Automatic annotation (TrEMBL):
Gene3D superfamilies: 2.30.30.140. This is HypC/HybG/HupF family hydrogenase formation chaperone. One of its GO terms (biological process) is protein maturation. It comes from Mangrovimicrobium sediminis. One of its GO terms (molecular function) is iron ion binding. It comes from the Bacteria.
Length: 78
């Protein structure tokens, strides 16, 4: 089973075909080799250093909110 996380594109390096993507307060450089046209501000689904596909912003925000909720529940568990 794999886990891919939505991230927002902060910057793009067209020469290297990479982007800096933010997931919450964490940012990471990822490859754009597997996606088509993307722009700063777009959300992409990220897995092991690769952007897999562009996401609808509303869907990305909903998924990130669910992850945050799950994290909060885990912290509250005894």
């Amino acid at each position: 089973m794999c886990l891919a996380i939505p991230g927002e594109i902060l910057s793009i390096d067209s020469d290297a075909d990479t982007a800096v993507v933010a997931v919450g307060e964490v940012s990471k450089s990822v490859s754009l080799a597997l996606v088509g046209e993307v722009a700063v501000g777009d959300y992409v689904l990220v897995h092991v250093g690769y952007a897999l596909e562009r996401l609808d912003p509303a869907e990305a925000e909903k998924t990130l909110a669910l992850f945050a909720e799950m994290g909060g529940q885990a912290e509250a568990a005894p």
